[in-house]
Structure formats: structure tokens, C-alpha cells
Amino acid sequence: MAKVVRVCFAFDVDGRSLTEAKRRQGITMSPEMVKTLAEDQSIMFDRVLDFFASTGLRQTFFVTGKVAEDEPERMASALAAGHEIAFHGYSHMPLCHLSDAAEADEFDRTSDYFREKFGVRLLGMRAPSYSFGPRTPGNMRRSGMIYDSSAIDSVHPRFVPAGEAGYWEIPVRPEVDDWLHCVRLPELGYHAPIKSPDEVLAIYCDSFDRCYREAGCFVTVWHPFVTMSDRYRSVAPDLLHHIRQFDGVVFCTMQEIAAACEADLIPACSAGAAGRM
Ligand SMILES: [Zn+2]
């Protein structure tokens, strides 16, 4: 079988919900950061849509329920353009810090909103701050979700049995998270100096090259206010140019990656699929 490497430039859209969640956790953002995060869900989100439109990509946004409620027209634009919207919590509070009822409510409020407002079922998730907890698979199943992308350990999707069913884990590698390289925010634990756009591009290109050699799935953890900022805006198109030089690359949404896993089209999934019996 010819090699196929699936790629998704996935964005997490936290916006104002991140400001509010951090405030609830006792962390006050600077006024400048509050403004930046407000733009994350508005003008920076628009930049992502424009970038995807100009390059012909249909990709996945992991959006909090709060952001979606704030920005219904932008959600409608993203859906109309063929992008997938997936679950990123309702409030962006870490799921594992919540009570049983509060975690369930995060799923219900967000899933209900998308179903009632847009007639869309959310098929997958990425936990806020990678906070996937022991109750999360049960909430996913109840909400009809089939994949998660919160694990940071691999480029090979796998089936994770959970209860009577299970879900596809579509993991990422840590170096594809733009916060790691482009955000210095000591109050949130990001102390390292930010890297130059060239350095960031080189890290992403190396990560993709390794993923390609391993025939994995290359999935990003990007944020509109970071990767679409004036400083870093050239990185995504430059990475796209790099990736498009390789044979057998398919850009797709996360739900399409999950569907390919389900259909056994991704070789690394075969063992996992067999393990479901
Ligand atoms: Zn987030």
C-alpha cells in the first residue's frame, strides 16, 4: 500500500474562556493579555479561516462552548467552509479538577449548543490544558464522540477500549504546541524566551519529517492568537509549503483521521483495531 500521511493543522480556540478559567484558578492576566485573548476568538480566528480559504484546507477547530456561544457567526462561517468543530471543554477549566457533575455539564452544554444551534454533532475532543481524566471516556461516549486528541506521546493513532466501547486516540507530539515556542507568560509557567519564526518553522519541519518517516499522522496544537500573530504568521504557510513537497500527504479533519482509523486505512491502527475484540 502506498504511504499516506494524514495532516491536520488543528487549532484550539480558547479566547476569553481562558482568561475566565485562569481567573477562577486565582491567576489574573495582564490587561494586554486579556485583550490578546479576546482577539483570539475574533480577528485571529478570522485570520485562520482566511489562511485555510486561501490554501484550500479544511481542518479542525477545538473550540470551547463559551467561545462558540460568544461567536455564533464565526462558528457558522467555519462550518459552512467545511471545517470541523470539536470539543475543547465549555469553560476551559481543566476537566480533571471538576466534580463529576461539572465535567458532565461541560460536555452537555457544549454538545447541546452545537446540536440545537447548528444541527452539528461534535465527534471529538481535546481536553483543555490536556486535562483528560478518568471520567472523560464515559462523558465522551455519552456525548457520541469517537476520538480524542489530548495525549502527547506519539504520531500513531490507537484504539482505546473504554467500558462497552472505546475511542480513537489521535495523539500529538509536544513540539507541535505553539505555546511552547512562542508564548512567554511566567504567571502560567511559560518562562522560556520566545523563539524566532525561523526556529519555530525548523522545529515543526523536523517534527513533520520524523512523522513522515514513521508514516504517522501529523496534528498540530496551534492557537489563533499565537500562530496567526503578526510575528509568527509566516510559519504556517511556510510549513504548508514544506509539507506539500512530500508524496502521499493528505490534509484532512480530525474526524476524517478517526474515520480512516475505523476503516483500517491507517496501518498503525491495525493492531489496535484487532485489540478491540
Ligand atoms: Zn486550550
UniProtKB/TrEMBL annotation:
**NodB homology domain residues:** 32-252
One GO BP on record is: carbohydrate metabolic process
Report the coiled-coil segments: none
Q: Which PROSITE patterns match?
A: NODB
Organism annotation: Paenirhodobacter populi
Q: Which family does it belong to?
A: Belongs to the polysaccharide deacetylase family.
- Name by which UniProt lists this protein: Chitooligosaccharide deacetylase
Instruction: Recall the GO molecular function terms of this protein's record.
Output: hydrolase activity, acting on carbon-nitrogen (but not peptide) bonds
Q: Which Pfam families match?
A: Polysacc_deac_1
Q: What SUPFAM superfamilies is this protein classified in? A: Glycoside hydrolase/deacetylase
Role description: Is involved in generating a small heat-stable compound (Nod), an acylated oligomer of N-acetylglucosamine, that stimulates mitosis in various plant protoplasts.
